[in-house]
Amino acid sequence: MIEQEFASLLDAYAHTSHRQHVERIEQAYRFAYKAHYGVRRLSGEPYIMHPLAVAKIVVSEIGLGSTSISAALLHDVVEDTDYTVADIENLFGAKIAQIVDGLTKISGGVFGDKASEQAENFRKLLLTMSDDIRVVLIKIADRLHNMRTLSAQPLNKQYKIAGETQYIYAPLAHRLGLGSIKSELENLAFKYEHPDTYAELKAKIEADSIARMDYFEKFAKPIREKLKMLGYDFDLTARIKSPYSIWVKMNTKHVTFEEIYDLLAVRIVFTPNQSFSEKDQCWMIYSAITEIYRPHPERIRDWISTPKANGYEALHITVMGQNGEWVEIQIRTRRMHELAEQGLAAHWKYKTGVLEDTELDKWIRDIKDVLASEAPDAMAFLDTFKLNLFAKEVFVFTPNGDIQTLPQGATVLDLAYQLHSELGEHCIGAKVNHSLKSSDYILHAGDQVEVLTAQQQQPQPEWLKYVTTAKAQQALNGYFRKQERQQEKLGERRLLDALDALDLSEQHLDMAVQHLLNHYHLTKRNELFRQIGLDAIKLQNLKDIITPKRSIWARINPFGSGKEKQQTLPLDTTESAEQGVQMDTRKDKSKRNIVLTDENLKDVILEECCHPIPGDAVIGFKDTTGKMHVHYLNCPVAERLKSSYGKAIYSITWDTHRMTQYKEKLEIEGIDQFGLLVEMLRVISDNFHINLQELHVTANNGIFSARIELYVFDKQELEELIDSLKKLHNIQSVKRVFT
Fold first, then answer.
1. Choosing a second label site near 272 at 20 to 30 A (CA), which of 7, 23, 59, 115?
2. 367 vs 175, which has greater pLDDT?
C-alpha cells in the first residue's frame, strides 16, 4: 500500500512541467519512511501515509516542484522523531532544511495550548512567508489532508480543528489563490461542525443531480456549437454549489433549499489563439453567448480588467436559461484557470517580469509590513490580521485614475493610510465623487476619492473604531503606543523631580512606585507613569502617600490581613464533576464530551451572546476557574474560541426533559393585512401555549415586521413554532435572532 502511494506520487510529479529530480524525492521518501517506521495514525494506517498524501497534494493540487515535495515528505520528521534540522540540512541541503524548520515551528496546527501561544504560532506561520512562501503552501496541504481524515479524531478535537480551519486556513487558502482547496476546507469544516445539516443538503443535491445535469446538457448544447463554429479549443463543464455555500446562502438570505436558484454554474476554459489578447477573446466569447441567452445587466463581474487581490482572473456573466432560470457562466483562459486553482505557484510561473506588480504581490508586501510593525500582543495581531484575510474587496480610484484595492467595508481613513501613513495621520475627510465626506465614510466600488488633510489634525482614539485594514490599525496602534511611551517618560521624570524635592534620590523610585500603585489601585508601573504624564495623577501629596501612618492593627499584626488567595481550578476533565458538570462515562473521557442535564445546567453558563437552548449544536469552553461556558457552535465568539483555545474546548450533549424555559427572539416579516397579528398570537398562545415576553410590531408601505421575545423549552419546540408561523398566509419569513 505504501509503495503504491509513493508510485502514485512519482507519477503525478512526472506529469508536471517541472525539471525532474526524482532522486531527491526518492531519498526524502526513504528517509521519512525509516524515521516514521512502526508509528501509526489514529486511523490505524502507517504514519508515512500522511506525508505521502501531503506531498501528493503539493504536486497535484498546488503545482509545486521537487523541493516542496521533499519538504512535504519530511515535514513531521523533526517534530516527531529524534532527527534535527541539522540532520536534514546535512542530507538534503539548506533550502529543504529551512522549509522543514519553518513547518516544525508551526507544527500541531496553527494553535497550541494557550491563546497567546496559538496566536504567536500563527504569527510565526506568516513570518515564514518572508523567507519562503512554500512553507505556508505546504502547511495548507498538511491541513487539507488532516481535514480529509478528521473522522479518526475525538469530537472535541474535530470541533477545534474544524473551527481553526474555518477561521484561518480556508480564508488564507482563498487569499493565496487556492480556490479548490479553499472550497474543500470550508466544506469539510462544515461537515464536521454540522454533520446532520451537511448530510441533509448533500442528499438533496444528489437527489436532484440527474435532472440538473439534463438541464445543463440542454443549456450547454447551443454554446458548444457556437464556440466550435468560432474555432475555439475549450472545455465546458458544470459546477454545482457545495453544501457549505448553499448553507451560507440559506442563512444569509433566509431562504430554503428549494428557493436557491443558482445551484448550477457553467465554466468555460479555453485555449486562446495568438491573434488577439486574452481579454479581447473573453469578451468575444461573452458576445457569442449573449447572442444565445439574455444577460443579467447587473450581474457582470469583470475580473480580467481588474484581477482580485488573490490574483484571480475571469469574466463572470449571468444569463437567462431555457426554463427562465438564471445561470452563471465563468469564462477563463487555461492560464487563468491554473491561476484560480493553484494560486501562488502558478502566479510566479506566469509572471512576465520584475516590473509587474500584482495585487497579490502588494498583499504579501502588506503582510510583511504588518509583521514588521509592533503589535500590543499576539491576540490583537490575530484579530487585526483576520480582518484582511478575506478577499472580498472594492476598487476605488484616486484623482489621477490609479486603482486602489481595499477590503469591503473600508473607509476613507483606510484609504488614506494605504496611500501613506502621513496622509492617514492628517486626514480630515475626502471628496468622494466630488462630494465632501467624513473620514469614516465607507467606500463603494468605483468611487473616485481625493483624500483631504490638515496639518493640525492628529490621530484620535475613536479612529480605531472605524478603520478595517490591518495597515491602518497597525499604524494607529503604533502612533498611540509612541504617544503613551512619551507620556510614560514624562510621568517618570515628574515623579523623579517630586522625589528630588523631598530630598529623596532615584534609589527610592521603586519604593515610591509601589506605594503609588497601592494608593491608586493600579497594577502596572507604566500605567502609573502614563497617568502622571497626563496629569490625571497629581504628586502634591506624594509625601503622605509614601510615608503613611501605620494603624494600631498594623503594629499589632505586621503580617497582613490573613486573607487567603482565591484558588483557581485547573483545566482538566476530572474537575468537571467537582463543578457539578457530569462527565459522559459512556464514552472515552479523552473525547471530553459533557452531558448537560436538568440538574447540572445551573453549573454552566449559557452565554448571552448567542443564548443557546437544549437541542442546539453547541460547544463548551472551560475558563481558568473551571467554569464551563456554553456557546452556539457558530456564534462568532465560539468561532474565536475554537481557533484560539484548542484544549479548553469540550463537546456538549443535551439530556434535558423540558423542565426549564429559555428566552428566545424571533423576527417575522410579511405582507401587511388585517388580522395577521391576531393569527400569529393565536398560533403562539393557543396552539403552543408559549409565554410572550415582548412584542414589537411595525408596518410600512404594506410591509409588516415584528420582533418577538418568548419562552420555549428547547430547539424542537422553537422550530415547530417557526414552521407553523411560516404556514400563515402572507408571512414571508420567520427567523431566530441569535444576538
1. 59
2. 175
Checking 9-13 for CB contacts under 8 A at 24+ apart, the result is: 9/52, 9/55, 9/56, 9/59, 9/69, 12/56, 12/59, 12/60, 13/59, 13/66, 13/69
Cβ-contact 335, 270 below 8 angstroms: no
C-beta separation of 391 from 408 below 8 A: no
Of the candidates 722, 737, 713, which has an alpha carbon nearest to the alpha carbon of residue 256?
Answer: 722
Residue with cell 488614506: 416
Catalytic-labelled residue, pool 45, 79, 325, 450: 79
Instruction: Choose the catalytic residue: 5, 45, 80, 584.
Output: 80
What distance in Å separates the CA atoms of residue 684 and residue 692, rounded to the nearest whole number?
8
Q: Per-residue DSSP letters for 293-352?
A: SEEPTT--EETTTS--TT----EEEEEE-TTS-EEEEEEEEHHHHHHHHHTHHHHHHS--
Domains and CATH numbers, the chain: 2-152 (1.10.3210.10), 202-348 (3.30.460.10), 360-477 (3.10.20.30), 575-655 (no CATH), 662-737 (3.30.70.260)
Q: Are 7 and 49 in contact (CB under 8 A)?
A: no
**H or E segment and range at residue 68:** helix 66-74
Backbone angles phi, psi at 622, to 5 degrees: -95, 125
Q: Decide: 369 and 471 in contact? Cβ < 8 Å.
A: yes
Task: Tell me the C-alpha distance between 486 and 500, whole Å.
Answer: 21
Select from 602, 603, 608 the least CA-distant residue to 627.
Answer: 603
* The predicted structure's pLDDT at residue 549: 54
d(CA 629, CA 639): 14
Cell of 179: 480556490
pTM over cut 0.85 = no
Cβ neighbours, 10 Å, residue 459: 19
Distance, CA of 266 to CA of 662 (rounded, Å): 46
Instruction: Mark whether 608 is an active-site residue.
Output: no
Among 109-123, 226-240, 271-285, 417-431, the range scoring the smallest mean pLDDT is 109-123
What are 642's three cell numbers? 475554537
Is 450 one of the annotated active-site residues of the chain? no
Choose the weakest-confidence range: 6-10, 23-27, 235-239, 355-359.
355-359
Strands 628-632 and 604-606: parallel
